[in-house]
Amino acid sequence: MRVLLVEDDLVLFKAMERLLIDNGCVVDHAPTLAFAEDAILDYEYDIILLDRGLPDGEGLTLIDYCQRNDRENRIVVLTAQDQLEEKIEGLDLGAYDYIVKPFEPEELLARIRAAIRHKKGHQVEPILAGNVSYNPETRDLLIEGKAFVVPRREMVLLEAFVKRFRRIVTREFLQNIMYGYDDELQSNSVESHVSRLRKNLRKANSGLKISSIRGVGYVLQEET
């Protein structure tokens, strides 16, 4: 899950970033509205966590910006502005949820899960690939009915591969979904994670293999 955290308080951002990373998220930081607007055009985020009081303006204007640019992002407002009329304003403008600071970390995670589960009136069917079953709504990955647990970045890779089963996934795309803006990258980082994921899939009897496409990327296929 890729999250855009629009927050100008660096101390609060660092605390929230650690919480989100520990729960399997890739986090990008936008300390201003201008930065957030650029990020939204570059990436499709699963969740945007949005502060209202930003250095260059009212955070709620980002909701309209998303709508005008056809970005169907789920926006959760996180703010110290706790008056009822302020909450109503945010929700009426199109925010999915409105959380008043300070908040409990577990409550934030629960609200994010609720936002992700909220689809437009239809149930998402699991994706099947080999012996793997992936539910894009709950993000559950099962191999032969058993939960498949690997480190966070390998899980992000596998989700991307399963969603694009039998299709080429470029190395650049994988790098973008695995790392946030501020992460330091090594030249072989994607290759290293793919190699470890290959081994874990073999050990788990997934019935799948990841083939390299020279100079382009990778493709997830059935074992032959």
Q: Give me the secondary-structure category.
A: alpha/beta
What is the chains' assembly state?
A: single chain
Give a quick account of the main beta sheet: strands, pairing sense, barrel closure. 5 strands, parallel
Number of domains: 2
Can you tell me about this structure?
The strands form four sheets. The chain has a five-stranded parallel sheet, with helices on both faces. Strands 8-9-10-11 form a four-stranded antiparallel sheet, with helices on one face. A three-stranded antiparallel sheet has the order 12-14-13. Helix 6 crosses helix 8 (189-203). It has 224 residues and is of the alpha/beta class. The two termini are 31 Å apart. It has eight helices and 14 strands. The protein has two domains: 2-117, Response regulator (Rossmann fold), CATH 3.40.50.2300; 127-222, Winged helix-like DNA-binding domain superfamily/Winged helix DNA-binding domain (Arc Repressor Mutant, subunit A).
